[in-house]
Amino acid sequence: MSGFLTLLYKELLRFWKVSFQTIAAPILSALLYLMIFSHVLRGRVEVYPGVTYGEFLIPGLAMMSLLQNSFANSSSSIIQSKITGNMVFVLLTPLSPFEMFSAYMLAAVARGMLVGLGVLFATMFFIDVPVVHPLWALAFAICGGAILSALGMIAGIWADKFDQLAAFQNFIIVPLTFLAGVFYSVHSLPPFWQHASHLNPFFYMVDGFRYGFFGMGDVQPIRSFLVVAISLIALSTLTLKLLSSGYKLRH
Amino acid sequence: MPPAIEVRDASKSYGSLRALDSVSLQIEQGEFFGLLGPNGAGKTTLISLLAGLVRPDAGSLRVMGYDVVEAYRLSRRALGVVPQELVFDPFFTVRETLRIQAGYFGLRNNDAWIDEILERLDLKAKAHSNMRTLSGGMKRRVLVGQALVHRPPVIILDEPTAGVDVELRQGLWQFIRELNEAGHTIVLTTHYLEEAEALCGRIAMLKQGKIVALDTTRNLLGRVSGVRLRVRLFPDSLPDSLRGWHVGRDGESEVMQLPDYASLESMFAELRRAGVTVQEMELMQSDLEDAFVQIMRNH
Fold first, then answer.
1. Residue A116: inside a domain, yes or no?
2. A89 within 8 A of A42, measured Cβ to Cβ
């Protein structure tokens, strides 16, 4: 047990020591998005009845930041350890694959949540957003962060160089988050793109999370939650399999 | 009492390269054991297999009786490894590094032992320095500390003194020797043959993934057959009949390699017959390096 706690502590300390870069910077980026988009689109778009564009945007931005930072945490920790060689300190210990998996995941979710909460708190000063179903919002935040931290582990284990990790991030994670309905409701899209969006699991994370705030969404929250839960189970299983087999870690 | 290390028919290939070829080896508890061999002989592969960093293609490996695959939690608890590469985590200080490493093994409140390690490795003044700011030799000593932090009964050091200056090397060996006297089994790979000669009770020599010699250090030294000596002659010309034993020249002296001490008689007889007198003569001690070179040449 305490081996697991140590790895968790080490992973938390790792991002906390550089919190300007790992927490403050992504909060600032989210605020800039909010300022620019809500200014440009003020009064022009009303996604849900009675919800201004600024209000609509905030939960999406918080979730997008949460997802991207959960991914960044586990992926960068693993690839840095692999490339600098200090992964060996973890690999030499009696830690089981499950303990490694849980420690990396919890730390990544913690960073995602800190950034997500930071975005919500920072924007509270400018725009008032209701929270109708906080438990739904929390459930989607935790599961979304967990999914992205599993993806981060997979990417970190698979990539041999920073370049490959950056490709994974820029060509898979970023498009999927941007196209998940953060900046718009997918109902405003042409039918083809609406259907395409429904194939993107990130869409359900964002939509379910936003449901927690407004009590309204593009799909039923229970349906979103099912998609999210199944994705989480599938990706966790795959990550655990990689860790147990020693893929690219224990040759 | 199980052996400290037991390797049975262990093999490992990387693609077409056979890094370790059906190696069997047993190291008893309390030994100071040396693993020698040229680069690429398979020393690091063998260590990585024991540490669970690499998985064997065939065969089995045990540390203190625990299989490194089946009972990896117990085998890794029993083993401390100082890796060859100078690796460190740039986010942490020396003390944090050691505390975290102890924590991975489930150890809390281990500070008394950590203090002793810092003291013995001459790192006390650097305890609160970030790992990045340390010199290469200091980083190496932190690696040694990390391997010792859970007090493993078996300690493997893969080239531990590379880049560590002479004075500290002495201190490090003193510490390791004391650990050995306290009952820890020590396995060492090194490029410095004189270190292995001075420290190790037994030695295995590896070449191309196979063990080519496995014996006590004394027996390995004894295997260097013959007598090597340096003679200065007057006049300075070696009789042709002695050319067969001549191996080189050192300054004004000839270096001779004789099959045994008895041959000294015939050498002197030949010199007398040729009217050559011996001005100076020195018998040269054979060392592990000669044994190493000879064994590597014969395989």
1. yes
2. no
Higher pLDDT, A207 or A48: A207
Q: Are residues B154 and B279 in the same domain?
A: no
**B153 lies in the same domain as B256:** no
3-state helix, strand, coil in chain B (%, to 5): 35, 30, 30
B103 CB near a chain A CB, below 8 Å? yes
Residues B158 and B216 in one domain: yes
Structure tokens at B18: 């056979």
Say if residue B251 is in the same domain as residue B213: no
Residue ranges in chain B assigned as alpha helix (H): 43-51, 72-77, 94-104, 111-120, 136-148, 166-181, 193-199, 217-222, 263-273, 288-298
- Structure ipTM: 0.90
Residues of A in contact with B103 (CB under 8 A): 2-3, 5-6, 9-10
* Contact at CB, A92 and B91, closer than 8 angstroms: no
pLDDT at position A124 is: 86
The contacts of residue B103 (CB under 8 Å, 6+ apart) are A2, A3, A5, A6, A9, A10
Residue B228: per-residue pLDDT: 84
The pLDDT confidence band at residue B259, using thresholds 50, 70 and 90, is confident
What span, in angstroms and rounded, lies between the C-alpha atoms of A25 and A39?
21
Supply the pLDDT for residue A213: 96
Same domain membership, residue B237 and residue B206:
no
According to the model, what pLDDT value does residue A107 have? 98
> How far apart (Å, rounded) are the C-alpha atoms in residues B94 and B124?
9
Instruction: Report pLDDT digits (tens) over B11-25.
Output: 999 999 999 999 999
The pTM (predicted TM-score) of the whole model is 0.88
Q: What is the nearest CA distance from B219 to chain A, expressed in angstroms?
A: 34
The DSSP secondary structure of B79-124, one letter per residue, reads EEEE-SS----TTSBHHHHHHHHHHHTT--S-HHHHHHHHHHTT-G
Confidence class for position B212, pLDDT limits 50, 70, 90: very high
pLDDT, tens digit, for every residue of A114-128? Answer: 999 999 999 988 888
Side by side, the strands of the sheet bearing B185-189 are B79-82, B154-158, B185-189, B32-36, B202-207, B210-216
A-proximal residues of B, 134-163, CB under 8 Å: 146
Given B51, B79, B87, which is nearest A86 (Cβ)?
Answer: B87
Yes or no: say if B41 and B209 are a contact pair by the CB < 8 Å rule. Answer: yes
Summarize pLDDT for A210-251 with one digit per residue, the tens. 999 999 999 999 999 999 999 999 999 999 999 999 999 998
Express each pLDDT in B220-255 by its tens digit.
Answer: 887 776 788 899 999 988 999 999 888 888 888 998
Closest CA to B92 of B130, B138, B46: B130
Query: Residue A251: inside a domain, yes or no?
Result: no
Owning domain of residue B146: 5-222
Q: Is B41 helix (H, G, I), strand (E, B) or coil?
A: coil
